[in-house]
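User: Run a structure prediction on this.
Assistant: Running it now.
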Amino acid sequence: MTVSELAKRAGVTADTVRHYVRTGLLIPQRDPNNGYKRFSESHLKRLLFIVEAKSLGFSLPDIQLIFGQAAQGESPCPQVREIMSHRMTEVAKKIEAMQATYRQMEEAMERWKTQPDCIPTGDHICHLIEGFSEGGCCHD
């Protein structure tokens, strides 16, 4: 199958397939008649694996490592568990940071409900943002 046929069957773009070819995650055969890249059912299975792994938070280098271990006849499962554990820790930290940001946004919106609109001056652009730490005020 062609790049576009493979992409369609996997539910990705042709550019995604081309990117995976450039990074070595997919290695197509060349059609001897026209030099076009040709893909097989095994390429489709590999591409679907990549899509699933990415949806679980694995990076392309992670996936390359998994493929390498499998190609050597080694079980990549221990490495998969280790990578997933690391990713879960990273995501938990990001969630905490986003929740803190959200709480700060809520606090700002609550304060700003009672503050007047102000005209920008040469020293100030928007007192709501500039004065958030100090409680904000207009500097007219």
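The chain has a mean pLDDT of 92.
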